[in-house]
Amino acid sequence: MADAVKKGADAVKDKVSEVTSGASYEANKSAAKDSDRSVGDRVSHGVDAVKDKVDEKTSEASKESNKNSAENEAKGIVETVKEKAAEAYNYVAGAGGEGEGKGLVETVKEKATEAYHYVAEKVTEATHAVTGEANKEVAKDSNQSVSTRAGAAVDAVKDKVEEKTSAAKAEAHKHDL
């Protein structure tokens, strides 16, 4: 990018030189044609006019070269920026093509879903652990009827199974994170 800026600045300097040389050429050409001047003075201005014309054309050619170089460099930079922007977009959004990788957004959505399911299973696991303990206490309570104690014991076993199932599911979701 610095090269493009330098070439652009050089093109501007060349344009200033071209205009200055052109103006000097016109002044020297007029002086060379002025019959009120001496022959030596007219010849001197004629030589200077030729030098100015050469400088003008040299500056014009240099200006065009620097301008073209700056434009080409800038076009290259624009193309590079476009390519990088496309790469960034594809990284974030996903390319969407067959066999292409998922985009960042899709990956984040999947990870968020897995995290949600992990937390939900951990809550379910904890809930079954608490209710299982409560049912165990009811099953041990001699003040309860036999049918109540038997029902609580069955529920405690079910809660333990559900607790272990939820723990396994939570671990699977955690693994997918």
What key phrases describe this protein's structure?
177 residues, mainly alpha, 2 domains, 4 helices
Descriptive report:
This protein is an all-alpha fold and 177 residues long. The chain has two domains: 2-93; 104-176. Helix content is 88%, strand content 0%. It is built from four helices and no strands. The protein has helices spanning 2-33, 39-93, 104-140, 146-176. Helix 1 runs antiparallel to helix 2 and helix 3 runs antiparallel to helix 4. The radius of gyration is 44 Å and the shape is rod-shaped.
**What is the chain-wise order of helices and strands?**
HHHH
- Helical fraction equals over 70%
The shape, in one word, is: rod-shaped
Task: Return the average pLDDT rounded to an integer.
Answer: 90
User: What oligomeric arrangement do these chains adopt?
Assistant: single chain
Number of domains: 2
How many strand segments? 0
Region (Disordered): 1-74, 136-157
Pfam families: Grg1
Biased composition (Basic and acidic residues): 1-17, 31-74
List the helices and strands and how they pair.
Layout: H1 2-33, H2 39-93, H3 104-140, H4 146-176
Helix pairs in contact: 1-2, 3-4
What is shown here, in short?
88% of the residues lie in helices and 0% in strands.
